[in-house]
């Protein structure tokens, strides 16, 4: 179910204590944001600590009051809610054990809390809604055209995020096109022979003693095709040793991978992202490409993030496409591929659309042709 403009009465229920001006401002902003899937469980934005906190409460405290409000903030978090500590340029969201710290590009808009409510109502997770709220400017809802934030200069930065290594990661083409993700070196050889020129080896459940051989075989297969680009998922050390074209990492790998070693070895780096906050983390590192997803529900990989859908992928592309080549991934089929390409990405990763196809050779040919239309 999707919801377009919400009513003032709807937003009046989402603030504590009741705040008519905030509710009216949130309704004005939400009316300009278009149709989005209705949020399954509405969040209540608390500008004062509630006496009886509940799951779904989002308490906002100023940095100066954070110490005095520490006990009540802890109570909100213990109840399953979250807390945003804010000052003129900084915002920190704490939920459970997760902490998201942001530095705004400019002084916060007077309507940033109303914008936060509007983006939450569009179904965005709190950390992504906060990113958008910090990129919002007063009066955006009255501007001609689409008011959705897309100017990179408006977006906040991630406080404490690692800086990009020097030298920078080697670049990728702006459009990688069809990008099969396959489970073995045999499959790498096959899809390259079928005509694919970008491929990712994602090894799962392979005995440790066989990993190096699989990676080496995949890289060797790429060398037999001068224009091939073979990426290795996760196993960055083996990718460096084998001289792979590139490596693909998830956000969880950023804490352990030696990004400087990857860059120094001349490998390209692809990074996963699942929303605005993770996009900002990834883009700070200046990756060779940025993966956006999952577009649709997928069974080929366990992903904590929900399906993003075409509307979000298109919004992400308008922001991130100015800064890195983009790859959409997750649940894409032959039937949905043209619509995914139309979001503005230059590449689409597919898994079962190739590996589970009755005729993989024909699948690679037909899927690849979609990028030439």
From TrEMBL:
Binding-site positions, 4-amino-2-methyl-5-(diphosphooxymethyl)pyrimidine: 200-204, 233, 272, 301
Cofactor note: Binds 1 Mg(2+) ion per subunit.
Binding site for 2-[(2R,5Z)-2-carboxy-4-methylthiazol-5(2H)-ylidene]ethyl phosphate: 298-300, 331, 351-352
Pathway connected to this protein: Cofactor biosynthesis; thiamine diphosphate biosynthesis; thiamine phosphate from 4-amino-2-methyl-5-diphosphomethylpyrimidine and 4-methyl-5-(2-phosphoethyl)-thiazole: step 1/1
EC number(s) given by UniProt: 2.5.1.3
Record keywords, A-Z: Magnesium, Metal-binding, Thiamine biosynthesis, Transferase
Catalytic activity: 4-methyl-5-(2-phosphooxyethyl)-thiazole + 4-amino-2-methyl-5-(diphosphooxymethyl)pyrimidine + H(+) = thiamine phosphate + diphosphate; 2-[(2R,5Z)-2-carboxy-4-methylthiazol-5(2H)-ylidene]ethyl phosphate + 4-amino-2-methyl-5-(diphosphooxymethyl)pyrimidine + 2 H(+) = thiamine phosphate + CO2 + diphosphate; 2-(2-carboxy-4-methylthiazol-5-yl)ethyl phosphate + 4-amino-2-methyl-5-(diphosphooxymethyl)pyrimidine + 2 H(+) = thiamine phosphate + CO2 + diphosphate
Necessary cofactors: Mg(2+)
GO cellular component, one term: cytoplasm
GO molecular function, one term: thiamine-phosphate diphosphorylase activity
Ranges where the Thiamine phosphate synthase/TenI domain occurs: 184-354
Chain sites annotated for binding Mg(2+): 234, 253
GO biological process: thiamine biosynthetic process; thiamine diphosphate biosynthetic process
Record family assignment: Belongs to the thiamine-phosphate synthase family.
Role description: Condenses 4-methyl-5-(beta-hydroxyethyl)thiazole monophosphate (THZ-P) and 2-methyl-4-amino-5-hydroxymethyl pyrimidine pyrophosphate (HMP-PP) to form thiamine monophosphate (TMP).
PANTHER family reported for this sequence: THIAMINE-PHOSPHATE PYROPHOSPHORYLASE, THIAMINE-PHOSPHATE SYNTHASE
Protein name, UniProt field: Thiamine-phosphate synthase
Taxonomic lineage of the native organism: Bacteria, Pseudomonadati, Pseudomonadota, Betaproteobacteria, Burkholderiales
């Amino acid at each position: 179910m999707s919801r377009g403009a919400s009513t003032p009465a709807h937003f009046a229920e989402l603030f504590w204590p009741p705040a008519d001006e905030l509710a009216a401002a949130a309704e004005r902003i939400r009316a300009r944001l278009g149709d989005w899937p209705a949020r399954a469980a509405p969040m209540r934005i608390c500008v004062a600590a509630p006496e009886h906190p509940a799951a779904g409460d989002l308490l906002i405290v100023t940095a100066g009051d954070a110490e005095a409000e520490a006990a009540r903030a802890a109570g909100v978090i213990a109840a399953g809610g979250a807390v945003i500590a804010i000052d003129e340029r900084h915002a920190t969201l704490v939920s459970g054990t997760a902490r998201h710290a942001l530095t705004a590009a400019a002084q916060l808009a007077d309507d940033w809390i109303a914008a936060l409510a509007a983006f939450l109502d569009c179904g965005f997770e709190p950390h992504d809604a906060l990113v958008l709220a910090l990129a919002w400017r007063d009066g955006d809802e009255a501007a001609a055209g689409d008011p959705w934030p897309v100017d990179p200069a408006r977006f906040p930065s991630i406080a404490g995020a690692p800086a990009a290594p020097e030298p920078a990661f080697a670049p990728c083409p702006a459009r990688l096109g069809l990008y099969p993700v396959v489970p073995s070196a045999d499959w790498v050889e096959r899809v390259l022979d079928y005509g694919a020129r970008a491929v990712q080896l994602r090894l799962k459940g392979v005995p440790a003693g066989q990993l190096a051989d699989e990676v080496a075989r995949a890289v060797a297969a790429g060398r037999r095709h001068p224009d091939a680009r073979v990426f290795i998922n996760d196993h960055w050390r083996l990718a460096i040793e084998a001289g792979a074209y590139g490596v693909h990492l998830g956000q969880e790998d950023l804490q352990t991978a030696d990004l400087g070693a990857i860059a120094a070895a001349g490998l390209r780096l692809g990074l996963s992202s699942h929303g605005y906050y993770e996009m900002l983390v990834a883009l700070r590192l200046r990756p060779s490409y940025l993966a956006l997803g999952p577009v649709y529900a997928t069974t080929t990989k366990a992903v904590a993030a929900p399906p993003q859908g075409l509307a979000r992928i298109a919004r992400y592309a308008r922001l991130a496409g100015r800064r890195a080549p983009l790859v959409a991934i997750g649940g894409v089929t032959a039937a949905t591929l043209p619509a995914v390409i139309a979001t503005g990405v230059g590449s689409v990763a597919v898994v079962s659309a190739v590996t589970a196809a009755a005729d993989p050779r024909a699948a690679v040919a037909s899927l690849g042709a979609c990028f030439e239309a």
